[in-house]
Fold this protein.
Amino acid sequence: MELESKIKEDLKEAMKKGDNATRDVLRMLTSDIKNETMKVRKELDDKEVLGVVRKNIKSRKDSIEQFVKGGREDLAAQEKAELVILEKYQPVQMGEDEIRLVVKKALVNLDEKDAQNFGLVMKEAMKDIEGKADGAIVSKIVKETLIG
């Protein structure tokens, strides 16, 4: 509930300041949170709200990629601006070195046979990383580590 309250407070501030870009992004985000609340039929905790935020961030990143491929730099720039606003609501992201340490720890926790199974290593690593790093980066590091 704390994260959702912060988003709503920031929305009010953006409206007072006349910051239309932030206002529009946060309105969309609060709408998505409300939709998710109705879908699960209960109030969302911070972890679930963060999931909605991540979904919005992933959507923006995908859009940026598509707009750049399509030569629409103007739309990509708008999506990048929205992405910056959304990323304020994520926890501080881990660096690659920190992720490598967590992956190595996960390999130690698994027995020898399971340590070669990509899915099991990812699952073990994501227990400690959840929300603190992009899954694609973790996946890349796990692959690098397993290959050698």
Notes: DSSP finds seven helices and no strands in the chain. Residues 46-69 form the longest helix (24 residues).
